Amino acid sequence: MNIVHGHIGWLEVICGPMFSGKSEELIRRMRRSLIARKRVQIFKPAIDNRYSNDEIVSHSDLRIRSQVVRSAEEILDLLEIRTEVVGIDEANFLGAELPEVANHLADMGKQVIIAGLDTDYLGRPFEPIPALLALAEEITKTLAICVQCGGPAKFTQRLVESSDLIVVGAAGLYEARCRRCFEAGSHRQQLLDFVKRPGKGP
Ligand code: ADP
Ligand code: ZN
């Protein structure tokens, strides 16, 4: 649902666990904006320099061109004044400044569409998405399919223990689980640190 008319700014958030289709939904909305001939810019965080590239890639291998940023503030630096729609993926890696930046963009009259994980690997609220939900005009919660029982999954189950800050890759490291099948475990890391490997599908 895109209820933006004229220059009224707007903030939409797409959140949920890994594999729930957040990137697909962001790409779908950005493509629709392009079909409507709106000027769009899409950003994603530079999580791992080795794999920085110029595309958002979903687990189902949908792709769209994007710009890499190292911080939320850098979005303001790279913003072109005529841009009407701003898309941001993997927002959970952009830190505590993102809500202020997103609010500022919406106040400037931009349609802002943000996708990110809303919970960490223990199922706890994962900032900055909870703060963004409070600021948003529109919220979409996506669910994955539980790989154990086939039910609706809102948890991201970590399958390995790692002391690395960022664990690159998807298959084998994390999987979607429902409330009943989710096991919080006792891993040391505090935050879900998954990042998709650019250019690779599931
Ligand atoms: P997210 O951005 O939320 O991690 P993506 O948009 O990148 O999700 O990928 C969603 C796609 O992942 C689905 O359309 C499907 O093809 C694939 N997929 C793989 N495992 C699952 C799962 N357990 N539940 C749902 N989709 C899955
Ligand atoms: Zn289950």
What does this entry look like structurally?
The chain has 4 helices and 14 strands. The protein has 202 residues and is of the alpha/beta class. The strands form 5 sheets. Strands 5-2-6-7-1-8 form a 6-stranded parallel sheet, with helices on both faces. It has helices at 22-35, 72-78, 98-107, 129-135, and strands at residues 10-16, 40-45, 55-57, 63-65, 67-69, 85-88, 111-117, 138-141, 144-145, 152-153, 155-158, 167-168, 174-177, 194-195. The chain starts with 9 loop residues before the first strand and ends in a 7-residue tail after the last strand. Strand 6, helix 3 (98-107) and strand 7 form a beta-alpha-beta unit. 19% of the residues lie in helices and 26% in strands. Helix 3 packs parallel to helix 4. Bound molecules: adenosine-5'-diphosphate and zinc ion. Adenosine-5'-diphosphate (ADP) binds at residues 16, 18-24, 58-60, 144-145, 147, 176, 202.
CATH architecture of the domain at 10-142: 3-Layer(aba) Sandwich
How many E-type strands? 14
**For the record, what CATH class of the domain at 10-142 applies?**
Alpha Beta
* Average pLDDT rating: 86
Small molecules bound in the structure, each named once: adenosine-5'-diphosphate, zinc ion
- The number of helical elements comes to 4
What oligomeric state is this?
A: single chain
CATH topology of the domain at 10-142: Rossmann fold
The share of residues in extended strands comes to 25-35%
Strand order of the largest sheet: 5-2-6-7-1-8
Shape: globular
Largest sheet: 6 strands, parallel
Radius of gyration, CA atoms, in whole angstroms: 16 Å
